[in-house]
Amino acid sequence: MPGRSRAIALSKATGIRANTIGELYHCASERTSFEHLDKICEALVFIQVIETAHVKYNISQENIKQMCKDAVNRAAIFL
After folding, report:
1. Mean pLDDT over all residues of the chain?
2. Read out DSSP for 21-45?
3. Number of other residues whose CB lies within 10 A of the CB of residue 50
4. What 8-state DSSP symbol labels residue 78?
């Protein structure tokens, strides 16, 4: 992991403690939760999509956040 700030960002995206993410990265954890791994994978894929859209299509992060909120609100109609 490049640094503590990446662990903190991933922690905020997943709800998993930054220390837990660091332990997983350094293989220092005695056990691994599949739920944690699933959340981390989802967050990393989402982060990659956002970074690609930001660079490739010149979409600001604020616009991406608004698009995500709009999509969640539209999906909530069907739930």
Report:
1. 80
2. HHHHHTT--SS--HHHHHHHHHHHH
3. 16
4. T
Torsion of CA 20, 66, 50, 1, to 10 degrees: -20
pLDDT in tens, 52-64: 877 888 888 788 7
Name the band, by pLDDT with cuts 50, 70 and 90, for residue 1.
very low
Confidence of residue 3 (pLDDT cuts 50, 70, 90): low
- For residue 50, what are its two tokens? 């956002």
Q: How far is CA 29 from CA 23, 26, 45, 49, in A?
A: 5, 8, 23, 28
